[in-house]
Amino acid sequence: MRFDYSHDLAALMVYELLITLDGEVNLFWSAAFTKTTALFLLNRYTSLIKYPVEIAAMWPTSQLILIRVGEGAEIIPYFVWNIFTVMRVHALTQGHWGATVVVFVLSSVPIGANIYLFTATAPGLIDEVIGCTFVTVMPETVYTA
Q1: How confident is residue 126, by pLDDT bands cut at 50, 70 and 90?
Q2: Given 3-state DSSP classes, what are the helix, strand and coil percentages for the chain, each rounded to the nearest 5?
Q3: CA–CA gap between residue 134 and residue 6 (Å, rounded)
Q4: Which of 1, 9, 99, 124 could be stapled to 137 by a disulfide with Cβ–Cβ 3.0 to 4.6 Å?
Q5: What sign does the CA torsion over 25, 30, 31, 37 have?
Q6: How many whole angstroms separate alpha carbon 14 and alpha carbon 26?
Q7: CA torsion angle 28 33 39 43 (round to 10)
Q8: Angle made by CA atoms 57, 59, 65, in degrees to the nearest 5
């Protein structure tokens, strides 16, 4: 028997969002909008984009488009984490650009890898007894390259 916990995780994320919303409003929404505020809001809300798209993709209309949008939404948090990591290293090294550039390059690897997979793969659907399941159909050139 196969279980899919993505809806449970989405419910947990929404629950956490709701119980911490009052603190977020006091600390971020009522203050002046800064780069730090933008980074916090991007980190907090980009992960929530994926779940409504996944749920909407369960219906047959525009399913392929929604799957691709969901895949694209999975890449967005990597940009936010990259920016946060680079800012943190820059601050901890007291502005040493050498370490900052190295960390930027290394933390950009997952972004490049995911963008490559996004462009090199084609989404597909397999009907199972339980319902539709998303699988990635990779061209043979990916394995032989």
Answers
A1: very low
A2: 70, 10, 20
A3: 13
A4: 124
A5: positive
A6: 19
A7: 40
A8: 40
